[in-house]
Amino acid sequence: MTPENAALPLQDKKTKLQRLGPWSLLCVGLAAVVPTAPACAAEEQSSKKQENTTADDDSMPLSVESLVVHGERNKNATTDGTGSYVVKAVSMNKMLLRLDEIPQSVSVLGRQQMRDQNLNTVDDALKQVPGVSVNLYGDGTAGYMARGYILSPQFDGVPSSGGLGMTQQFDIAIYDRLEVLRGPDGMFQGSAPPGGSVNFVRKRGLDHFKAQGSFSGGSWNNLHADADVTGPLIASGKVTGRLVLAGTDRDFFYNSAHDRRWTAYGTVDVHITEHTTLSLYGMGQKNDTTRFMGLPRAANGQDLHLPRSSYIGANWNTTSSPMYEVGGELEHVFDNKWRMRLTGRHRMTDTSMRYAYMNGSISAQNTGNFIVAKSLVKEQYDGADLYVTGPVHFLNRKHDFLIGANYDSALEHDGGASISWRNNTALQGLDIFNPVISQSIDPTITTMYREPTTQGGIYGSARFELLPTLHLMMGGRLSFFEYKYKNLSKNTPYVISQKNSAVPTPYLGLIWNVTPNIAAYVSYTDTFEPQSAYSLTGRLKPVRGTQLEGGLKGNFFHKKLNVTLSGYHILERNKAIEDADQAPICGMSGTSTCYHAAGKVRSQGMEAEVIGRLLPGWDINASYTYNDNIILQDGGSALQGLHNTPNSPRHLFKLWTHYRFAAPEVARNVWSVGGGVTAQSSTFGNARTVKQGAYVVASAQVGYQLRPELNITFNINNISNTKYYQRLGNVNYYNYYGEPRNFMATVQSVF
């Protein structure tokens, strides 16, 4: 729901919807395809005016997206259609709190900024989030980090043990917003690294008809289109729905590579009663992407300064990852304003990869040795979450309580095989830029593994109002975790590689409203993260750690601008460190990389963020992050005292600003301009000898709103054509250049 609709009583909504009728749905459906429908637009604007006249009514909303936030009316978490970079609330903590009510760093990327920047992928979106590093892989996937650690996913507030790093992502068009919490989220997430989590919040059906779409075209035959239609499905308004379709067809700036994919998403909300809502959804995506393992470096790690168009691999390299997800939720609001929510989801991904890559040093004649590899991976993710939350009044104060439980299951069915230049002479001494590799060299997968991971937990939290300006948050979780392994080829019994029961992760936070606009906070939490790394004696024990964080949060200009300053200190024990001198003889197969447990790893630093509207028409999202992530103790090894995490800069600055040359009520013939900068300090790769210095990348945008329902923008990215690496790996592969200067034109239509 949009903010103006969130407060409408159900009867008022019914009346309005009956008045509009099915003709409006037909008009909007046509408008999504043909951006000329003044009659429809006039009707929609008329309905919005009527909605605004009732926006201050008190009523119990129908879903978590529009719940009243701690006594403040109409605090809606939905960002679509707000026209603002600032969100009124976030839902990842389940209580639907304002940002200044959460004693941790939280950033939200909403639809308006996505629209202003023409962001079409999760990768591009998370590049805009403060403190987040996006490390691309050459098959349409990426890894995401904050504070020196990978991020964990949540989907509509339900944690998942997979589905984020090095995994295909759905088109960004299906999401209302991305909520990013930096720092441990063990209370709700359970076992997870201390970097934080990303909550992917889907778009929901609206109680009024709306259609929007966009078409983009740019460098390297980059084409993207999406269409989004929503509204009531029956005249009473008790059933609402939404349909989103998106497609991408693009080449890459490096040779012989392409990416083609389609996405479909549909959701239905059934308002069973005024207080009970059932939501069902389904989405699917299919892709065909060239598999690229990146560029090599010199044997000593030095940059070979290869052209950015360089592609090393066979011209038939490919990755295919069709996936689908279905789920639903049941939500009920009781008369005493307590709320119960039950959520479930099921995701399937079937990934197949076949590719050739170089594995060996480059000769003076630009020849190298290659490997042909094949991989089949089937992944299944199931999750369920049940909680109740509500207010309790005692000692003349209002307090909020929450208790719940969740379950997460990840089942991986995988196998792989390869043929090396060591046992096939046809793969020796090939031209690295044009290797002739026959498709008849096809490894046979003879070994398959089944690896189920299950975890669950019981969690609870309480928000106590000690004083009108002082709130205490207390909570914790008991987590249960089990990882098993089975060799399907030999039909061996399951081997329990790791099992943990009743692992506690306490949480404590304090928030003091120094002034009505400024809040100071401090928080403490534990971390718990099982590891997949093996030593010579078996799988390493879980990583345990703690985080202490404190800072200030402020809102200014009538809550249109948010400012956050934070400092943090993370200390981890038992972190896996690669044994560089040990041959890869570890793991169940006896061929995996060997690791050992470090004594202590520390990550500390500070973050600053400014987001919102400085002046009428002028929006900004600026941030600076300092992260010092080092190995404190490692048994006196050479790594002790060194920076711990690859591709994690110590300094990271991000800026995006956008200005519209007209008052908000003007919607015709309006120009706008935008610009952005990303700057970061030096980094190293998986091999510490692979390094790069600091770099700065800038972008610019010009937009023209022809009429209320039609906007045209033109983007220039990497204006200076800076040559840099988006990700660093080792001397053989996983080194990926960032995009050279490129252009994108976009037509956006909203009705």
Describe the protein's architecture and organization:
Helices cover 8% and strands 51% of the residues. With 751 residues, it is mainly beta. It has a single domain (3-750), classed as Maltoporin, Chain A (Beta Barrel), CATH 2.40.170. The protein has a 24-stranded antiparallel β-sheet that branches. A five-stranded mixed β-sheet has the order 1-7-8-5-6. The protein has a three-stranded antiparallel β-sheet with strand order 2-3-4, with no helix packed on it. Strand 18 and strand 19 (397-420) form a beta hairpin. Helix 2 packs antiparallel against helix 3 (38-53). The radius of gyration is 26 Å and the shape is globular. It starts with a helix and ends with a strand. 47% of the residues are buried. Mean pLDDT is 87; it is low at 1-64 and 67-75.
